[in-house]
């Protein structure tokens, strides 16, 4: 045994203090995400515990913190509604295995190649659905199932609440929670040592108890009672196309959110940089264990990670310790959860959803890159109107088309001296996306004059363009003029 144990953990004091801050931030978020996802509140704590004790121990990003994320709430809710809670474990386990596989194959960095507009559009769409969905529990009402239904039903839900004392009390509590979160940064520095989410939930819980407000509270089942590993029979559903699509969506979104979070956390500190493949393996290991336990999926969460860095954390010990505190709370004080009002958790998630909508980024994109702004908006609207998976696919497809279109720079220069052959010079990239422009320009050339086409300036000529050029040359030559002369690329 070493004589000076503090040498082995030189930053234990800073990490210990930071872990308490992260625990206080994570606690209400773990519970809120679970309730919004339609699963027992304790499962959110299980995912937070795994994120601290398992993912926190592994290599990757030393300071970012993992747990249940608001960004996956909508997808989890849809999956539980469509497939049932037992199959959630199968989905999360398969997601973890895929993440580990991608990390081993060193595909972690490729997730950073996903268009930022698609990712921000995805988060914006999630934020919109999350806000619309959580306004219903704040109104003590049941939310419609579809995204458009949630938005369309809000005016009626507000009107119904006006004549219901319980609904008005619930709305006031949710609105008060949001107000505390918004105004917390203006409180004195000593007061701000208490994290905003914890203060908001604590004040709402106190108000509901003291005023005896008729609002719904969290149902408590006990930690062990809530953990339900998926039955073996559930794995037979992996042959379902719908389930596979959901697993792909979980994997894509969880991985992208975690790795984008890692890049953001790296900008907040001067410590070791993230190793993306190892971080993907760490996230996969955590999700695989969460799947075995039947808990929620995890991602790295920027809110908790930023709190960890700002609280002075220096090593991964802080995130591991935050998992210890979550475990002790879930084991020793589970009954405390039953006092937390549902409207307060709804208020926290409405606030979180609003922060997912990149208003400033959209304004910047609109001024300088309107194509990217359009991708962001279309992705978000598609997620609201259709579903998470289809919305992300639409965004990715638009991003690919835009990139291909911009890469297809093509210039056609025609030199016509009034007599003799007409010279046409093509330069750039001739792809099928520019085919209409090429054909319109060539077919406009004189039919009764010899044509010389110079393709030596092309960097790329795809099969569709080559075939179309050959067909045009044959048609032009059939008109009785000299055959078209082509300088090959």
TrEMBL record:
UniProt domain SLC26A/SulP transporter: residue ranges: 13-379
InterPro entries linked: SLC26A/SulP_dom, SLC26A/SulP_fam
What subcellular compartments does it reside in?
Membrane
Domain of life from the UniProt record? Bacteria
Pfam families in UniProt: Sulfate_transp
State if Cell membrane is listed as a keyword. no
Q: Specify whether Transmembrane is a keyword of the entry.
A: yes
The protein's predominant localisation is membrane
Give the UniProt keywords, A-Z. Answer: Membrane, Transmembrane, Transmembrane helix
Give the membrane topology. Answer: Multi-pass membrane protein
Where does the chain cross the membrane? 83-105, 117-136, 167-186, 198-218, 238-265, 324-353, 373-401
- Under what name is this protein listed? SulP family inorganic anion transporter
> Native species of this protein?
Streptomyces hyaluromycini
């Amino acid at each position: 045994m070493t004589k000076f144990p503090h040498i082995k953990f030189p930053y234990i004091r800073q990490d210990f203090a930071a872990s308490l801050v992260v625990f206080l931030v994570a606690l209400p978020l773990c519970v809120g995400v679970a309730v919004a996802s339609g699963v027992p509140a304790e499962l959110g704590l299980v995912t937070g515990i795994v994120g601290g004790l398992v993912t926190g121990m592994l290599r990757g990003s030393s300071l970012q913190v993992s747990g249940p994320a608001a960004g996956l709430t909508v997808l989890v809710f849809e999956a539980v509604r469509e497939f049932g809670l037992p199959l959630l474990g199968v989905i999360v386990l398969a997601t973890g295995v895929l993440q580990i596989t991608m990390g081993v194959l060193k595909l972690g960095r490729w997730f950073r190649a996903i268009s930022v507009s698609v990712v921000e559009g995805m988060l914006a769409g999630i934020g919109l659905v999350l806000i619309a969905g959580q306004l219903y529990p704040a109104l003590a009402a049941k939310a419609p199932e579809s995204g458009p239904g949630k938005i369309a039903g809000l005016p009626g839900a507000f009107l119904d609440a006006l004549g219901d004392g319980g609904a008005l009390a619930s709305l006031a509590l949710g609105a008060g929670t949001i107000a505390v979160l918004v105004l917390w940064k203006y409180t004195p520095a000593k007061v701000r040592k208490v994290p905003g989410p914890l203060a908001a939930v604590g004040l709402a819980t106190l108000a509901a108890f003291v005023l005896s407000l008729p609002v719904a509270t969290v149902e408590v089942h006990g930690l062990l009672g809530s953990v339900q590993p998926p039955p073996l029979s559930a794995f037979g559903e992996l042959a379902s196309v719908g389930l596979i699509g959901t697993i792909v969506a979980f994997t894509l979104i969880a991985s992208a959110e975690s790795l984008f979070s890692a890049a953001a956390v790296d900008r907040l500190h001067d410590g070791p940089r993230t190793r993306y493949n190892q971080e993907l393996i760490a996230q996969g290991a955590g999700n695989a264990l969460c799947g075995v336990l039947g808990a929620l999926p995890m991602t790295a969460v920027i809110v908790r990670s930023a709190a960890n860095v700002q609280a002075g954390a220096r090593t991964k010990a802080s995130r591991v310790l935050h998992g210890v505190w979550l475990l002790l709370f879930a084991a020793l004080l589970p009954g405390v959860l039953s006092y937390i009002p549902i409207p307060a958790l709804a208020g926290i998630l409405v606030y979180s959803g609003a922060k997912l909508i990149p208003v400033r980024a959209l304004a910047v994109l609109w001024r300088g890159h309107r194509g990217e702004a359009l991708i962001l908006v279309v992705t978000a609207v598609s997620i609201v109107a259709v579903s998470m998976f289809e919305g992300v696919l639409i965004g990715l497809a638009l991003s690919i088309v835009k990139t291909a279109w911009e890469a297809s720079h093509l210039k056609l220069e025609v030199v016509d001296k009034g007599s003799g052959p007409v010279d046409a010079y093509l330069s750039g990239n001739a792809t099928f996306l520019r085919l209409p422009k090429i054909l319109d320009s060539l077919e406009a050339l004189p039919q009764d004059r010899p044509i010389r086409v110079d393709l030596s300036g092309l960097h790329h000529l795809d099969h569709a363009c080559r075939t179309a050029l050959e067909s045009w040359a044959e048609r032009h030559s059939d008109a009785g003029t000299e055959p078209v002369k082509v300088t090959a690329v």
